[in-house]
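Quick one: structure tokens for this chain, please?
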Amino acid sequence: MDSTVSSGIGLVVALIGIVGLWQVFSKAGRPGWGAIIPIFNLYLLVKVAGRPGWWVLLYLVPVVNIVIHAIVAMDVARNFGKSRAFGIVGLWLFSVIGFAILGFSDARYAGERGVADTSNVAAAY
């Protein structure tokens, strides 16, 4: 395969990943543009998962980063009302496709730990 074709395919895959992650961040009330900034996008992803920000440091530890990313993927899936299986297969193994599906589907962010924000419900009464 020609290197130009490979580069073009890589660029398209990267753009799909960025756009999907941008949508997920936007749905979660985070800045969508954070998807294009390295490290900061990990921080936002960890926060969308409902985990403390220092977990980004765990991404720097070999082998531990694999486990942490799987946990974060499952937590993000749960917070959007999806199953653990979607988290592992869709967001961990096939993240570009999984985040695009999550970003452009009708899935709604239910807040950290999958608990919907009920602070405005009490104010409505």
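The CA atoms of residues 77 and 83 lie 6 Å apart.
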